[in-house]
């Protein structure tokens, strides 16, 4: 169409992205640093041709029911799409896109940082060093556990899982993974990765578990209390995917009882709420959902959103179209 699409950004994005969006589209910005209210979201879907939400906007069936005829595209700024009801969007003929690929390496870096931080007690060490209470080196001071030679179990061997596996190999970890199906034999050979059809069995045999699957109905609370209990008491859990994949309450209790040795978490079931049990534990490292938070990554995510909107508005299939069946 010749007309510029009316695009609503629900959150403040990097300046250069906003500037280009305003040049290319009839763009409404959110000038504040807080999410749009529910009413403002309703207004947006009633009037915009394209909505650009982020992970903090719940685009559920109730909201989509308010969508006007003109809303054709939800071009999400982010890779996970669990905040969008894909079936509801589809039933209204609304296309959904995301920004995969450009945050893979950054997220894998953060996963690796957590894998190192928890067994080696980096956050605790930092707190001690700052506190003024450090009495100097001692042979038994702040001992953690060795990374090299341990077994890493990756749940969800997609783009991010593979990027984690590559890094982990450099740290001497052996790679185990659970996925709906094995990855390509060449990839498996290259990573010397062992496929576990049974998640339960893998959980009981690895030293570090990393959650790298998307949150879907099939992975909701995948790490239930029962499954978490299968982990060895010497094992660690790292999650930079989605909090809802793990039973957070059970995790807190198992960590508190030292039935799980420690955890590194970047995501939570009800962000920004972080259960007090977790916040009070010493054997956890908690991050405020910053797995993909690099300026380079945000700019590339913005580029992807722009390309998706442009391609779609020009009448073509956008490169990052999300189909429910592929999740
Ligand atoms: C982003 C994320 O912060 O992409 C995702 O799935 O969780 C994060 O990388 C978020 O998506 C921004 O919408």
TrEMBL record:
Annotated D-isomer specific 2-hydroxyacid dehydrogenase NAD-binding domain residues: 112-291
Gene Ontology CC: one annotated term: cytosol
Domain D-isomer specific 2-hydroxyacid dehydrogenase catalytic residue range list: 17-322
CDD domains assigned to the protein according to its UniProt record, in alphabetical order: GDH
GO molecular function, one term: NAD binding
UniProt keyword annotations, A-Z: NAD, Oxidoreductase
Gene3D superfamilies hit by this protein: NAD(P)-binding Rossmann-like Domain (3.40.50.720)
Pfam family name, one: 2-Hacid_dh
InterPro entries recorded: D-isomer_2-hydroxyacid_DH, D-isomer_2_OHA_DH_cat_dom, D-isomer_DH_CS, D-isomer_DH_CS1, D-isomer_DH_NAD-bd, NAD(P)-bd_dom_sf
Record keyword Oxidoreductase present: yes
Class of the enzyme per the UniProt entry, highest EC level: oxidoreductase
EC number: 1.1.1.26
Family assignment from sequence similarity: Belongs to the D-isomer specific 2-hydroxyacid dehydrogenase family.
PANTHER family found in the cross-reference section: 2-HYDROXYACID DEHYDROGENASE-RELATED, GLYOXYLATE_HYDROXYPYRUVATE REDUCTASE B
Protein name (record): Lactate dehydrogenase and related dehydrogenase
